[in-house]
Amino acid sequence: MKKKKISKLPENLRKHLDEVLRRNPSQPPEGTDWELFSRYLAGEKLSGAYYYTMEKAGLEGQIPPEFSGRMRLSLNANRFVNRTHLAESSRVSRLIEENDIQIIFLKGVPNIIEIFEDVGEHPMEDVDILVRKDNMSQIKSLLKENFGYFPISVLPGINLFVQRDEHEGKVKLLRKPDQDKPTPYIHLHTMIGSSLFSYDGENFFKSHRKIMLEGNEIRVLRHEDNFIHTCIHWASHIGGRSDLEYRRMGLIRFLEKFGPVLNWEEIAGEFEYRGIMPCLTESLKAAGYYDAGFIGEDIRKKIRLPAYKICIINILEKRRSWLARYLLGFHRSLWPDRRRLTAIYGDLPGVYPLLKAWVRNVVSIARRIRVLFFDRMHRGGR
Protein backbone atom coordinates (compact mmCIF):
# COMPACT_ATOMS: atom_id res chain seq x y z
CA MET A 1 0.00 0.00 0.00
CA LYS A 2 1.32 3.44 -0.93
CA LYS A 3 2.37 5.48 2.08
CA LYS A 4 0.64 8.80 2.61
CA LYS A 5 2.87 11.86 2.35
CA ILE A 6 3.56 13.77 5.55
CA SER A 7 2.31 17.34 5.21
CA LYS A 8 3.13 18.68 8.69
CA LEU A 9 5.92 18.21 11.22
CA PRO A 10 5.88 18.59 15.02
CA GLU A 11 7.13 22.01 16.11
CA ASN A 12 10.45 20.74 17.50
CA LEU A 13 11.28 18.90 14.26
CA ARG A 14 10.26 21.91 12.17
CA LYS A 15 12.61 24.12 14.20
CA HIS A 16 15.42 21.58 13.75
CA LEU A 17 14.83 21.38 9.99
CA ASP A 18 14.82 25.18 9.71
CA GLU A 19 18.23 25.28 11.41
CA VAL A 20 19.53 22.72 8.92
CA LEU A 21 18.20 24.70 5.95
CA ARG A 22 20.10 27.73 7.27
CA ARG A 23 23.33 25.71 7.58
CA ASN A 24 23.29 25.97 11.37
CA PRO A 25 22.29 22.44 12.37
CA SER A 26 21.84 21.19 15.91
CA GLN A 27 21.29 17.71 17.27
CA PRO A 28 17.92 16.18 16.37
CA PRO A 29 15.31 16.47 19.17
CA GLU A 30 15.05 13.61 21.61
CA GLY A 31 12.39 11.06 20.72
CA THR A 32 12.42 11.99 17.02
CA ASP A 33 10.06 9.82 14.97
CA TRP A 34 12.59 9.05 12.25
CA GLU A 35 10.11 7.13 10.12
CA LEU A 36 7.84 10.18 9.94
CA PHE A 37 10.74 12.63 9.57
CA SER A 38 12.45 10.68 6.79
CA ARG A 39 9.19 10.37 4.87
CA TYR A 40 8.67 14.11 5.20
CA LEU A 41 12.18 14.85 3.96
CA ALA A 42 11.72 12.51 1.01
CA GLY A 43 8.39 14.12 0.08
CA GLU A 44 9.94 17.58 0.26
CA LYS A 45 13.06 16.48 -1.70
CA LEU A 46 15.30 17.44 1.20
CA SER A 47 16.85 14.08 2.13
CA GLY A 48 20.12 14.81 0.31
CA ALA A 49 20.43 18.38 1.62
CA TYR A 50 19.66 17.26 5.17
CA TYR A 51 22.28 14.51 5.15
CA TYR A 52 24.93 16.72 3.52
CA THR A 53 24.47 19.51 6.09
CA MET A 54 24.44 17.12 9.06
CA GLU A 55 27.52 15.30 7.71
CA LYS A 56 29.40 18.56 7.23
CA ALA A 57 28.62 19.53 10.82
CA GLY A 58 29.76 16.11 12.05
CA LEU A 59 26.26 15.17 13.22
CA GLU A 60 25.47 12.37 10.79
CA GLY A 61 26.02 9.90 13.63
CA GLN A 62 22.87 11.25 15.28
CA ILE A 63 20.78 9.76 12.46
CA PRO A 64 19.87 6.07 12.89
CA PRO A 65 21.84 3.91 10.39
CA GLU A 66 18.81 2.65 8.46
CA PHE A 67 17.69 6.24 7.76
CA SER A 68 21.14 7.77 7.22
CA GLY A 69 21.76 5.12 4.55
CA ARG A 70 18.66 6.20 2.64
CA MET A 71 19.58 9.87 2.93
CA ARG A 72 23.15 9.26 1.78
CA LEU A 73 21.79 7.31 -1.19
CA SER A 74 19.48 10.23 -2.03
CA LEU A 75 22.42 12.68 -1.88
CA ASN A 76 24.53 10.52 -4.21
CA ALA A 77 21.60 10.05 -6.59
CA ASN A 78 21.10 13.84 -6.69
CA ARG A 79 24.79 14.30 -7.49
CA PHE A 80 24.65 11.81 -10.33
CA VAL A 81 21.46 13.23 -11.85
CA ASN A 82 22.53 16.88 -11.46
CA ARG A 83 25.95 16.31 -13.02
CA THR A 84 24.23 14.63 -15.95
CA HIS A 85 21.89 17.61 -16.33
CA LEU A 86 24.76 20.11 -16.11
CA ALA A 87 26.81 18.23 -18.69
CA GLU A 88 23.79 18.08 -21.00
CA SER A 89 23.12 21.79 -20.45
CA SER A 90 26.67 22.58 -21.55
CA ARG A 91 26.29 20.47 -24.69
CA VAL A 92 22.92 21.99 -25.54
CA SER A 93 24.22 25.52 -25.01
CA ARG A 94 27.26 24.92 -27.20
CA LEU A 95 25.14 23.45 -30.02
CA ILE A 96 22.55 26.23 -30.02
CA GLU A 97 25.07 29.06 -29.70
CA GLU A 98 27.05 27.63 -32.62
CA ASN A 99 23.91 28.18 -34.70
CA ASP A 100 23.78 31.87 -33.67
CA ILE A 101 20.77 31.44 -31.39
CA GLN A 102 20.67 32.95 -27.91
CA ILE A 103 19.17 31.03 -24.97
CA ILE A 104 19.05 31.75 -21.23
CA PHE A 105 19.18 29.06 -18.55
CA LEU A 106 16.67 29.53 -15.73
CA LYS A 107 16.58 28.52 -12.04
CA GLY A 108 18.20 25.12 -11.56
CA VAL A 109 21.37 25.34 -13.63
CA PRO A 110 22.67 28.73 -12.36
CA ASN A 111 21.51 28.00 -8.80
CA ILE A 112 23.33 24.65 -8.63
CA ILE A 113 26.50 26.34 -9.91
CA GLU A 114 26.37 29.47 -7.75
CA ILE A 115 24.41 29.10 -4.51
CA PHE A 116 24.71 25.48 -3.34
CA GLU A 117 27.86 24.13 -1.74
CA ASP A 118 27.35 20.60 -3.07
CA VAL A 119 25.95 19.64 -6.45
CA GLY A 120 23.61 17.13 -4.76
CA GLU A 121 21.95 19.46 -2.26
CA HIS A 122 19.17 20.56 -4.60
CA PRO A 123 17.61 17.94 -6.93
CA MET A 124 17.11 18.98 -10.54
CA GLU A 125 14.06 17.53 -12.27
CA ASP A 126 14.69 19.21 -15.59
CA VAL A 127 16.57 21.96 -17.39
CA ASP A 128 14.58 25.17 -17.92
CA ILE A 129 15.66 27.26 -20.91
CA LEU A 130 14.27 30.61 -22.01
CA VAL A 131 14.06 30.99 -25.80
CA ARG A 132 12.66 33.48 -28.25
CA LYS A 133 9.36 32.53 -29.85
CA ASP A 134 10.84 32.87 -33.33
CA ASN A 135 13.58 30.36 -32.50
CA MET A 136 11.40 27.67 -30.92
CA SER A 137 11.00 25.49 -34.02
CA GLN A 138 14.67 25.73 -34.99
CA ILE A 139 15.84 24.79 -31.49
CA LYS A 140 13.49 21.80 -31.38
CA SER A 141 14.87 20.63 -34.72
CA LEU A 142 18.48 21.05 -33.60
CA LEU A 143 17.91 19.09 -30.40
CA LYS A 144 16.08 16.33 -32.23
CA GLU A 145 18.62 15.94 -35.04
CA ASN A 146 21.75 16.15 -32.86
CA PHE A 147 20.73 14.71 -29.47
CA GLY A 148 17.51 12.79 -30.15
CA TYR A 149 15.12 14.91 -28.08
CA PHE A 150 11.42 14.70 -28.88
CA PRO A 151 8.27 16.49 -27.57
CA ILE A 152 6.93 14.69 -24.53
CA SER A 153 3.35 15.41 -25.61
CA VAL A 154 3.58 12.63 -28.19
CA LEU A 155 3.77 10.04 -25.38
CA PRO A 156 0.54 8.15 -24.61
CA GLY A 157 -1.40 9.30 -21.55
CA ILE A 158 0.37 12.65 -21.28
CA ASN A 159 -1.25 15.28 -19.06
CA LEU A 160 -3.83 17.39 -20.90
CA PHE A 161 -2.36 20.60 -19.50
CA VAL A 162 0.95 19.75 -21.19
CA GLN A 163 -0.90 19.26 -24.47
CA ARG A 164 -2.62 22.61 -23.94
CA ASP A 165 0.70 24.34 -23.32
CA GLU A 166 2.15 22.70 -26.42
CA HIS A 167 -0.77 24.01 -28.43
CA GLU A 168 -0.43 27.54 -27.04
CA GLY A 169 3.32 27.52 -27.65
CA LYS A 170 4.16 28.55 -24.08
CA VAL A 171 6.29 25.61 -23.03
CA LYS A 172 7.80 22.76 -24.99
CA LEU A 173 8.69 19.66 -23.01
CA LEU A 174 11.44 17.65 -24.65
CA ARG A 175 12.77 14.28 -23.58
CA LYS A 176 15.79 12.25 -24.60
CA PRO A 177 15.46 8.48 -24.20
CA ASP A 178 18.58 6.89 -22.71
CA GLN A 179 18.71 3.60 -20.85
CA ASP A 180 22.17 4.08 -19.29
CA LYS A 181 21.77 7.59 -17.84
CA PRO A 182 19.12 9.69 -16.11
CA THR A 183 16.68 10.90 -18.74
CA PRO A 184 17.02 14.70 -19.01
CA TYR A 185 13.92 16.75 -19.57
CA ILE A 186 14.33 20.12 -21.26
CA HIS A 187 11.65 22.78 -20.87
CA LEU A 188 11.76 25.48 -23.52
CA HIS A 189 10.01 28.61 -22.22
CA THR A 190 9.06 31.70 -24.16
CA MET A 191 7.98 33.47 -20.95
CA ILE A 192 8.76 33.11 -17.26
CA GLY A 193 6.71 33.54 -14.13
CA SER A 194 3.63 31.73 -12.86
CA SER A 195 0.04 31.43 -13.94
CA LEU A 196 -0.79 34.42 -11.73
CA PHE A 197 1.50 36.66 -13.72
CA SER A 198 4.29 36.23 -16.21
CA TYR A 199 6.99 38.10 -18.06
CA ASP A 200 7.49 38.09 -21.78
CA GLY A 201 10.86 36.39 -22.16
CA GLU A 202 12.06 38.78 -24.87
CA ASN A 203 12.93 41.44 -22.28
CA PHE A 204 15.49 39.22 -20.57
CA PHE A 205 17.60 38.85 -23.69
CA LYS A 206 18.36 42.58 -23.39
CA SER A 207 19.77 42.27 -19.86
CA HIS A 208 21.36 39.01 -18.78
CA ARG A 209 24.77 37.80 -17.60
CA LYS A 210 27.13 34.94 -18.36
CA ILE A 211 28.66 32.27 -16.16
CA MET A 212 31.00 29.36 -16.86
CA LEU A 213 29.76 25.78 -17.10
CA GLU A 214 32.32 23.09 -17.90
CA GLY A 215 34.52 25.52 -19.81
CA ASN A 216 31.58 26.92 -21.75
CA GLU A 217 29.92 30.32 -21.26
CA ILE A 218 26.16 30.14 -20.75
CA ARG A 219 23.61 32.93 -20.40
CA VAL A 220 21.59 33.21 -17.19
CA LEU A 221 19.22 35.77 -15.63
CA ARG A 222 20.57 38.72 -13.69
CA HIS A 223 20.49 38.17 -9.92
CA GLU A 224 17.53 40.54 -9.47
CA ASP A 225 15.46 38.83 -12.19
CA ASN A 226 16.39 35.41 -10.85
CA PHE A 227 15.25 36.38 -7.35
CA ILE A 228 11.92 37.72 -8.63
CA HIS A 229 11.40 34.52 -10.59
CA THR A 230 12.30 32.41 -7.53
CA CYS A 231 9.82 34.28 -5.29
CA ILE A 232 6.96 33.86 -7.73
CA HIS A 233 7.82 30.22 -8.32
CA TRP A 234 7.84 29.55 -4.56
CA ALA A 235 4.56 31.38 -3.86
CA SER A 236 2.69 29.82 -6.77
CA HIS A 237 3.29 26.32 -5.35
CA ILE A 238 1.86 27.00 -1.89
CA GLY A 239 -1.07 24.74 -1.17
CA GLY A 240 -0.33 22.59 -4.17
CA ARG A 241 2.67 20.30 -4.50
CA SER A 242 4.38 18.81 -1.47
CA ASP A 243 7.91 19.99 -2.30
CA LEU A 244 7.49 23.56 -1.03
CA GLU A 245 10.27 23.32 1.57
CA TYR A 246 12.99 22.61 -0.94
CA ARG A 247 11.86 25.67 -2.89
CA ARG A 248 12.10 27.65 0.35
CA MET A 249 15.63 26.30 0.74
CA GLY A 250 16.41 27.84 -2.65
CA LEU A 251 15.18 31.22 -1.38
CA ILE A 252 17.31 30.93 1.77
CA ARG A 253 20.47 29.94 -0.12
CA PHE A 254 19.97 32.68 -2.72
CA LEU A 255 19.53 35.45 -0.14
CA GLU A 256 22.41 34.09 1.90
CA LYS A 257 24.72 34.41 -1.11
CA PHE A 258 23.43 37.43 -3.05
CA GLY A 259 21.07 39.31 -0.68
CA PRO A 260 23.55 42.08 0.22
CA VAL A 261 24.40 42.84 -3.43
CA LEU A 262 20.88 42.84 -4.90
CA ASN A 263 19.30 46.08 -6.10
CA TRP A 264 16.36 46.14 -3.69
CA GLU A 265 14.95 49.35 -5.12
CA GLU A 266 14.55 47.62 -8.47
CA ILE A 267 13.10 44.44 -6.94
CA ALA A 268 10.57 46.26 -4.76
CA GLY A 269 9.63 48.51 -7.67
CA GLU A 270 8.94 45.51 -9.90
CA PHE A 271 6.72 43.79 -7.33
CA GLU A 272 4.91 47.07 -6.69
CA TYR A 273 4.42 47.66 -10.40
CA ARG A 274 2.93 44.18 -10.77
CA GLY A 275 0.64 44.72 -7.78
CA ILE A 276 1.92 41.66 -5.90
CA MET A 277 4.11 43.23 -3.24
CA PRO A 278 2.94 40.78 -0.52
CA CYS A 279 4.51 37.99 -2.55
CA LEU A 280 7.88 39.63 -1.82
CA THR A 281 6.88 40.11 1.82
CA GLU A 282 5.96 36.45 2.33
CA SER A 283 9.03 35.21 0.45
CA LEU A 284 11.34 37.24 2.71
CA LYS A 285 9.49 36.05 5.82
CA ALA A 286 9.65 32.42 4.72
CA ALA A 287 13.39 32.72 4.15
CA GLY A 288 13.89 34.56 7.45
CA TYR A 289 15.26 37.71 5.82
CA TYR A 290 12.36 40.13 6.27
CA ASP A 291 14.30 42.12 8.90
CA ALA A 292 17.68 41.80 7.18
CA GLY A 293 19.68 45.00 7.35
CA PHE A 294 20.66 44.94 3.68
CA ILE A 295 17.04 45.46 2.58
CA GLY A 296 16.75 48.90 4.17
CA GLU A 297 13.90 50.53 6.05
CA ASP A 298 12.77 52.61 3.07
CA ILE A 299 12.28 49.43 1.02
CA ARG A 300 10.41 47.71 3.86
CA LYS A 301 7.93 50.58 3.91
CA LYS A 302 7.03 49.74 0.32
CA ILE A 303 6.16 46.16 1.24
CA ARG A 304 2.46 46.67 1.76
CA LEU A 305 -0.85 45.13 0.81
CA PRO A 306 -2.66 46.44 -2.30
CA ALA A 307 -6.13 46.50 -0.72
CA TYR A 308 -8.06 46.89 -3.98
CA LYS A 309 -6.66 43.60 -5.29
CA ILE A 310 -7.45 41.84 -2.02
CA CYS A 311 -11.02 43.10 -2.34
CA ILE A 312 -11.32 41.62 -5.83
CA ILE A 313 -9.87 38.31 -4.68
CA ASN A 314 -12.20 38.13 -1.67
CA ILE A 315 -15.24 38.67 -3.87
CA LEU A 316 -14.11 36.07 -6.37
CA GLU A 317 -13.30 33.58 -3.64
CA LYS A 318 -16.90 33.80 -2.41
CA ARG A 319 -18.63 34.06 -5.78
CA ARG A 320 -16.34 31.72 -7.72
CA SER A 321 -17.55 33.24 -10.97
CA TRP A 322 -15.70 31.98 -14.03
CA LEU A 323 -16.85 35.03 -15.99
CA ALA A 324 -15.53 37.41 -13.33
CA ARG A 325 -12.23 35.56 -13.20
CA TYR A 326 -11.94 35.77 -16.95
CA LEU A 327 -12.64 39.50 -17.01
CA LEU A 328 -10.13 40.11 -14.22
CA GLY A 329 -7.38 38.07 -15.86
CA PHE A 330 -7.56 34.91 -13.74
CA HIS A 331 -8.74 32.69 -16.60
CA ARG A 332 -5.18 31.46 -17.23
CA SER A 333 -5.03 29.26 -14.15
CA LEU A 334 -7.14 26.99 -12.01
CA TRP A 335 -8.48 28.78 -8.94
CA PRO A 336 -5.80 28.56 -6.20
CA ASP A 337 -6.68 27.83 -2.60
CA ARG A 338 -6.74 30.33 0.26
CA ARG A 339 -3.24 29.47 1.51
CA ARG A 340 -1.75 30.30 -1.85
CA LEU A 341 -3.66 33.58 -2.08
CA THR A 342 -2.60 34.53 1.44
CA ALA A 343 1.08 33.96 0.65
CA ILE A 344 0.92 35.96 -2.57
CA TYR A 345 -1.42 38.77 -1.54
CA GLY A 346 -1.20 38.79 2.26
CA ASP A 347 -3.86 38.18 4.91
CA LEU A 348 -7.40 38.33 3.55
CA PRO A 349 -9.40 40.70 5.80
CA GLY A 350 -13.17 40.67 6.39
CA VAL A 351 -15.84 42.28 4.24
CA TYR A 352 -16.26 45.59 6.13
CA PRO A 353 -12.54 46.53 6.11
CA LEU A 354 -12.46 45.57 2.46
CA LEU A 355 -15.31 47.92 1.61
CA LYS A 356 -13.56 50.74 3.46
CA ALA A 357 -10.34 49.93 1.68
CA TRP A 358 -12.14 49.86 -1.65
CA VAL A 359 -13.52 53.37 -1.17
CA ARG A 360 -10.18 54.64 0.14
CA ASN A 361 -8.29 53.26 -2.85
CA VAL A 362 -10.32 54.51 -5.79
CA VAL A 363 -7.40 56.75 -6.73
CA SER A 364 -5.00 53.84 -6.49
CA ILE A 365 -7.17 51.78 -8.83
CA ALA A 366 -7.17 54.60 -11.37
CA ARG A 367 -3.41 54.88 -11.08
CA ARG A 368 -3.06 51.12 -11.57
CA ILE A 369 -5.13 51.25 -14.76
CA ARG A 370 -3.00 54.10 -16.06
CA VAL A 371 0.19 52.13 -15.34
CA LEU A 372 -1.14 49.00 -17.01
CA PHE A 373 -2.38 50.61 -20.19
CA PHE A 374 -0.09 53.60 -20.69
CA ASP A 375 3.17 53.42 -18.74
CA ARG A 376 3.85 49.84 -19.83
CA MET A 377 4.46 51.04 -23.39
CA HIS A 378 7.30 53.19 -22.09
CA ARG A 379 8.84 50.32 -20.12
CA GLY A 380 9.17 47.89 -22.99
CA GLY A 381 6.31 45.64 -21.80
CA ARG A 382 7.87 44.76 -18.42
Characteristics:
382 residues, Beta Polymerase, domain 2, 3 domains, five-stranded mixed sheet, two-stranded antiparallel sheet, globular
Largest sheet: 5 strands, mixed
Q: Kindly report the spatial arrangement of strands forming the biggest sheet.
A: 1-2-5-4-3
Helices and strands, in order, run as HHHHEHEHEHEEEEEEHHHHHHHHHH
What is the general shape?
globular
Give the CATH level 1 class of the largest domain.
Alpha Beta
Count of individual helical segments: 17
Could you list the spans in which at least 5 consecutive residues all have pLDDT below 50?
155-169, 313-358, 374-382
CATH domain topology of the largest domain = Beta Polymerase, domain 2
Number of domains: 3
Strand percentage, roughly? Answer: 5-15%
Number of strands: 9
Give the terminus-to-terminus CA distance.
49 Å
- State the CATH architecture of the largest domain: 2-Layer Sandwich
